[in-house]
Write a structure and sequence with these properties.
Blueprint lengths: L7 H38 L4 H21 L2 H12 L5 H73 L3 H44 L1 H36 L17
């Protein structure tokens, strides 16, 4: 088939289109993988909170962008398809391209996000323990204050009885009972707060001590999720990128990379 000879203008047009293609692919792949992997990684950790997921998503997005922009994912995926002999075969190309893209992006992204999210979760537990500990200190201070009042009331009761003032002594005994009830309630609250502090500290320690095994499990599940996500959505991202990069040029310009049959 005769093709129109390439000219400097067409080569520049092709280069701009190829740059747009790489940009669209980087944005699409980075965003898709960061959302999927951060969500799966946080769920696998067993400590899902929006506060731990959002930083993981942000960090994953940055890492995904860096990988997608600086690693020629499409070129390597095309080479893998050619080596596996599936070029031009829709299903084979889809699977090989998805697996290749996932292996290029998922391990690094999931490792960094796993470490970051677990440290964020452990730090959050430490902060919660610190807040409970501050409440515990306040409760203990109230107990000390009431204990001082209780001793004072005890002295007043003894003085009232010595002075032959039974009504005053009875009134002071009622106040004494209320103070004792307050001390008992505060003591129970302090025990609960102390248990809460220890539970939060213990959970933070468990996360840090079990970080390696948790990350290995997270790597396993996120890599599986990454492969599935890339197989399902990479062709859509590529089709969108091709359309918006070359769609207005009346076809693929001279020098432009050939699209794979993935859609």
């Amino acid at each position: 088939m005769n093709r129109e000879a390439a000219t400097p203008e067409k080569e520049r047009t092709a280069a701009r289109a190829a740059m747009k293609l790489n940009t669209y692919m980087a944005l699409g792949m980075g965003t898709m993988n960061s959302v999927a992997l951060s969500l799966v990684g946080t769920l696998v950790s067993g400590h899902f909170t929006w506060g731990s997921w959002a930083p993981g998503l942000a960090i994953g997005w940055v890492i995904g962008m860096l990988i997608a922009f600086f690693v020629p994912i499409k070129k390597l995926s095309d080479a893998a398809c050619e080596r596996c002999g599936v070029t031009g075969k829709k299903l084979g190309t889809r699977i090989v391209s998805g697996v290749t893209a996932s292996l290029l992006m998922t391990p690094v992204m999931s490792l960094v996000m796993g470490v970051v999210m677990m440290n964020i979760t452990a730090h959050g537990l430490d902060r919660s323990a610190d807040a409970l500990n501050a409440e515990l200190d306040s409760t203990k201070a109230q107990i000390v204050e009431l204990t001082g009042k209780l001793e004072g009331v005890g002295g007043q009761i003894a003085a009232a009885e010595a002075e032959g003032q039974p009504e005053k002594a009875e009134s002071l005994r009622a106040a004494q009972g209320e103070i004792q009830g307050g001390i008992a309630a505060l003591t129970k609250a302090a025990e609960g707060q102390s248990d809460g502090v220890e539970a939060q500290r213990s959970a933070a320690r468990e996360i840090r001590e079990g970080m390696l095994s948790s990350i290995l499990w997270s790597e396993l599940f996120t890599n599986i999720a990454g492969i599935i996500v890339n197989i399902l959505f990479q062709p859509m991202i590529l089709a969108f990128a091709m359309k918006h990069s070359f769609g207005k040029l009346g076809g693929r310009p001279a020098g432009a990379p050939p699209p794979q049959d993935t859609v």
